[in-house]
Amino acid sequence: MSVKYTKHFLSKLEDIFAESDYVLRYEKGNFKSGYCILNETRIAIVNKYYTTEGKISCLIDILKSIDLDQKQLSEKNAKLFLELSQTSLEL
């Protein structure tokens, strides 16, 4: 799957988080990787000053590293999540 670095694709990734147990927040911070995951409280924080491309890359990394229950996702988002989990990013 080719990743499109557009605001529309970013909103698709945000929809996956909206349907999951995780809360996605954009906040300022000096995270070394650009994001922070609080697993116990199920919160993912992304640097709000990142570009759209940076935010998308962070969200894909987060989705690959967390354990989501795909049964909670809609069919469309579950398909996207499955494709993303098998995709490697090339910048």
Task: Describe the structure concisely for a colleague.
The chain is of the alpha+beta class and 91 residues long.
- Give the low-confidence spans: none
Task: Report the span from N to C terminus.
Answer: 14 Å
Instruction: Estimate the mean pLDDT confidence.
Output: 88
Helix content: 40-55%
Secondary-structure class: alpha+beta
Q: Note the main sheet.
A: 3 strands, mixed
Number of helices: 3
Q: What's the total number of strands?
A: 3
Rough shape?
A: globular
N to C succession of SSEs: HEEEHH
Strand order of the largest sheet: 1-3-2
Strand percentage: 15-25%
Describe the secondary structure blueprint for this structure.
Elements: H1 7-19, E1 23-27, E2 35-38, E3 43-47, H2 52-65, H3 75-85
Parallel strand pairs: 1-3
Antiparallel strand pairs: 2-3
Please describe what this structure looks like:
The protein has 91 residues and is α+β, with helices and mostly antiparallel strands. The protein has one domain. The chain is built from 3 helices and 3 strands; from the N terminus they run αβββαα. The chain has a 3-stranded mixed β-sheet. The longest helix has 14 residues.
